[in-house]
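User: Can you predict the 3D structure for this chain?
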Amino acid sequence: MHAPSDLPSPSSERLRLMLDVKLGLLSVADRLRQNWGAHAAAVGLSPAQVTALLTLVPGEAVPMRSLAARLDYDASNLSVLVDRLERRGAVERRLDPGDRRVKALALTPEGERLRAAFWRALTEDPGPLAPLGAEDLRALAQVLGAIGDAPDRAEAAQASPG
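Assistant: Here is the predicted structure, written as structure tokens:
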């Protein structure tokens, strides 16, 4: 992705570099999302369905409201996704023993199989990161860790001139 030439340029070199990084990360994120989607399709699921399966823990039933919060989904949208997973035999709805008005969601053996098949294929495919060597991957992991693990520090650095 490139910055549109008809829009203003960043006011400093640091901001120009940050824009280049942002646009580069968005481009890589798009390629990673496509890779994720291809692996989901290979097991007959949508990316959202795979994400839901990975959020569930084998042997545990999670209230639908909790799953919606974990996925940052509206509960009504989650129902459609869960209906499809249930028809596929990947999950089952159960009554919550603590509150029988609450529906909980649990992986079935088929759901565990689909989850594992997706994960195995994803972890064995270098995808868009294939061109990077071990040293570059370690450096990238460190940089991404600094951004992802320390949002307060990143926001503080953004606020300070430099």
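The radius of gyration is 20 Å. The first helix runs from residue 13 to 42.
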